[in-house]
Fold these 2 entries.
Entry 1:
Amino acid sequence: MILLDSVWYRYPSGTVALQNVNLVINRGEIVALMGENGAGKTTLLKHLNGLFKPTSGRVEVDGVDTRTTTVASLSRKVGLVFQNPDNMFFCTTVFEEVSYALMQFGFSREEAEERAEEVLKTFDLLQYRNSSPFTLSGGEKKRLAISIVVAWMPSYIAIDEPTTGLDGWGKRRLIDLLLNLRDSERGIVLSSHDVEFVSEVATRVVLLLRGKVIADGPAVDILTDPRLLEEASLLTPQIPTLIQELKRKGLGDLNHKCLKLDEAVRCLSEIFSKTGSHFRGEGG
Amino acid sequence: MNMTIEIEDLSFRYAGSGRWALRNISLKIGEGEFAVFAGATGCGKSTLFKCLIGLIPQMYHGEYSGRVIVRGLDPSTTPISKMAQKVGMVFQNPDNQLFALTVENDVAFALENIGLERAEIERRVSKAFRIMGIEDLRHRSPFELSGGQKQRVAIASILALEPEILILDEPTSSLDGATAKKLLEELAEIRRKENITVLISEHRLDLVVREATRLIVMESGQIIADDEPREVLRQLLEDDYYMIELPKISRLAWALGLSGRRSIPLTKEEFIANLWGIGS
């Protein structure tokens, strides 16, 4: 697990970016860090692989204090994907980009190439294997950045704003990929303000406001709490907003903790089948 | 309706690319419309926008055919500086647009460049600040602002040019939900008040589509749907189209069979109205 214990972080300019953050991230979880621009999400992610060390407090990755080891050795365990994928690329082809990283982590050339091939296939990028990473579209670059990290199989993957620049198709694919990674017992932390995406994928949500954790709990609890979300400058996702409105209008025994689209479909169809083909509320 | 933009059979291929970025696009957009462009990344939205202000083919070279008329001008031959007085374009990343030491200088820069009088510059700058609600940022450095503030400054600097057409390429992609929603509401308000034509590309359809008069969907350089937004949503849902993210409320209504002959709901209010309408 990754443990953040009373973590404070102050930038050299004096700005306090994190204030007394306490957090535990386990394998098999998909934790979404959410909050407005400047809330401290990226700063927090950079602590997970030791890129930033806390000004006070401590961060431990599987029991190892990040101050006692190197970013390189921590990165083997915690893969960090930056918001702007251009910052990660420097090779001449997509294929080299993935295999180079693997060889840096000590994989033999043969194994690196085998894995690169496999991961590019999973992320639907194999057709670009000989292209320059810089010729890819925004969504493809994002997928490549994630695939580079996934290739070396870190225990934890931290992704800064995974959906920026992704279209509907890209998001659906990403949701499937993240769920698969979780099933293979990876711990995933992502920062996002895309509430609709987070609704479909996160098991847990941590709300940040000006460097402080203001809420930490199951996604289904946090994302159905309009008051908390408003405090963090986030919109309530569409499904819980609708469900609350339906409840207010008198649609009985509706589980207002419904978050995902397929849950809402299931739950509303059940109600319709019980109440007959149509619902009669106050205006019916 | 007076046509502000007329595109006839436009195709474009970037120099060195084997793929046509735009293929036989024909499109007319009327004065005062709020047209939303949607489509998977790489579908050609940004390329099309660049054609409307003349960046294509004047700055980006390639194979260009067809005819584009914007406010009576042909952007392929009209100087871009002249096009820019009719068409204001806001890019996805505001950092590419901001450069001055203060927000005020950033907004005034283009106005000085086109040789306006001091008093006129002051009038326009003040108006743009008021519309975007950023009077308090006037003397700040653009680089110490938050993402949402920067995007507002970038839009203000374009509004100050008093364009007849405002084009925004994914203006909310880096903004949090509350800021994105506010920005889109402001744009709708500006459009109504100033009667300018707005063209916007946006992934978050749930936030933008309720203000839209048109929804235009592109794929691989072609327009595959173009109509009133609810009608387009119906077509996309019927086809189980997954390349763009459709509003969840619309998808839920469709999955529950709540849309029937009625229009596809975009908001919770419309959803509830449809719900009560069943069987009646």
Entry 2:
Amino acid sequence: MSFLVEIDDLKVHFPIKSGLLFDRTVGYVYAVDGVSLKIKRGETYGLVGESGCGKSTLGRGLLRLVEPTHGTITFDGTDVRSLAGERMRLFRRRMQMVFQDPMSSLDPRQSVESLLVEGLKAHDLHKNKADTQQRLRSTLDSVGLPASALNKYPHEFSGGQRQRIGIARALVLGPELIVADEPVSALDVSIQAQVVNLLDDLQESLGLTYLVIAHDLAVIRHISDTIGVMYLGSLVEEASADQLYERPLHPYTRALLSAVPIPDPRVEDRRERMLLVGDLPSPANPPSGCRFRTRCPWSQSRCTEERPSLRTFDDSGQRVACHFAEQILSGELKPHEVRAELVRPDVDTGVGAELIPTRTDLPLP
Amino acid sequence: MPLLDVRDLSVVFDRKGTRPVKAVDGVSFTVEPGQTVGLVGESGCGKSVTSLAIMGLLPRRGNRVTGEVRFSDVDLLKLRPRELRDWRGRDIGMIFQDPLSSLNPVIPLGVQVAEVLERHQGRTRQAALREAKELLDAVGIPDPQRRLKEFPHQLSGGMRQRALIAIALACKPRLLIADEPTTALDVTIQAQILTLLKELVDNSGTALVMITHDLGVVAGLCDTVNVLYAGKVVERAYRHDLFEDPRHPYTHGLLQSVPRLDVDRGARLHQIRGSVSDNIPWSEGCAFAPRCDRVIDDCIGETVPLEPTRRAGALRCTNPVEREVAV
């Protein structure tokens, strides 16, 4: 099995500027902080995590829509980060993106035809009118839109149809990799299924590789072959979709899985919730050692000192970044109480989280 | 006697120069004291407008609200704005989706909680602030004494939503209306807030109207569920009945179309064809008919009534889904 994308120790740090006259860099937001992963050709890699965990930045960093600070990206044997200027631009034909909000990612003043032709022109694929028309029609057909859509404008479509246009815009260039950033989260429940099925069908017929970024674990599990769970800029666990659900190793993955509401009262009534206390710490001032230790009910003193690396757990290929995954799994290590830590959302001060002694009668796992 | 009795509530958006739109079309439901009732539907189904109409929060200009909203035998729709203001916040609390836009950004949090108590219970600022501290403590905000002086932007999303819950529950209302209270939050924070809401409602005996698009949220929280489509209640049932045996094709389709974490992932998701906007303007007959797999001739042309079914449920369908018999 060959890997289409290999990311090694990717870091994206955003500087925090401050100062009256001259911008001084007073700190960094560690949006993505050392992520390594591999995506097989033809598979769907799902990236899941809460807002602020860096999953979108990772997707954008992979396409160099934001310039990574450190690390290597290998796409089909080519070192993407070494490409400069025009060569990078032309290389982008092979990797396309589908955005979350189809309303703001489609120019309201461009017709669908113009939206689709723009990419073809940029990549010199617009040879003659008849060929282009043929190409546009077949692309629209593959995403389930009629050819009459070409002369319409984005506002004339419903949310689900707009997302189809967004997908068509990515597809028309014949890419190998599609990075889909929250492709269904702006859509209604009954429309989500249509778009998820469409992505499935396209993968089957065109042999596409997907990197799907989403916060909805149920959707991610449905469409992905491999799932990576991100927390505060780093990958904490990676496993096949079924394995992750059956045997979550990282405490954060467990908490995520138990937090997803399930539309079945019989399941909901019996369920034991593992509630996390507090909020995501500020990525400008991440905790020392393990990033999750401030909210982890199993955290030990070692977690404060040493940052766990993503290691292979066993033969199944499941990878986890936790010092105590074995002990937690066997029940040897017992969960303890966690104090809620107050998190400041104002990143610009660079101060971030501060620990305040507080009551502990919040619901515990 | 029910605590809240909504009878035949209709809201028509009627603005100059545009065609009138029926956003809510004859919605009726009741809430017993201490009960949790869910209003579920997709965007545009009228669930939020229903809650705004109950609270009298729709602007008078451009909206026609008809029907009855009886809250402990007083018709809220007949009250004058000044009288209604006494009820809002004291007997009925409300939580909105986005806590940042429902809190005033330039007023300290403590004052925002305290002003409810000053307005409705005649407390002094000092006494109200003391009580506000206890309220913030009760909803699980760490170090409430310091939070009193802070502004909404200094809190995280989950903490803001907790603050909003504290404001809504300040006067121990008999009814709490929560309009998508967790939609703007992450799943782990959503789980915190839902657990908190459930605890507070259980302990205080407050009735709760939960408005959401998320069937999973409803499954764990509500006693009775009303499913709305295009401004009408299409199905109502106890939650166990609804999820085990959904009768309306829309409810059935919705439940089939969401991927679930606890069942093996199938090859494809069931999909409902078309979208809600396919049936604007609302035609006669069933609004769901253009998207329905079970559509028959009777569905088109005639208005389908909401008819009572088993165990206090109700259904608006001429050709309902029969329960699949387990093999």
